Amino acid sequence: MSEDTGVDVPVAWPVAEYAELRVRKMQINLHRWAVADHGFRFDDVFNFVCDPATLVVAFERVAGNTGARTAGVDGLRADHVQAFGAEAYFGADPFAVEGRGLSANAGE
Which residues fall within 8 angstroms of residue 29, CB to CB, at 6 or more apart? Predict the structure, then answer.
């Protein structure tokens, strides 16, 4: 799925059940590689973190927390995103900050 998409191709957001299975499979692989070779270098972790399945699982976990009732740095609460869908707020690029009141250098 996401490994087949290019930079300019819209991302399909997986359903939560599929996303959970995909993330769990990758976690198992990462654990297996780390145990097999203690010096293993995880060069491609960014792609795992940015994978739509990982983002869906992370959002599901955040939305289930009591902190979901509090707006984040972008002013959004989890219930707003759930009501209108992630694409309504983030579009095809969940990391785009332009137009959302955020600076690309916010943490600096």
Answer: none
Average pLDDT over residues 84-90: 71
What letters, b where the CB count within 10 A reaches 16 and e where it falls short, cover 42-70?
eeeeeebeebbbbbbbebeeeeeeeebee
Distances (CA, A) of 3 to 6, 51, 61, 92, 99: 8, 8, 23, 15, 27
Tokens of 19: 């996303």
| pTM metric for this prediction | 0.64
User: How far is it, in rounded angstroms, from Cα 32 to Cα 55?
Assistant: 22
Alpha-carbon radius of gyration of the chain: 16
> Is 52 in contact with 12 (CB distance < 8 Å)?
yes
By the 8 A CB rule, do 13 and 93 touch?
no
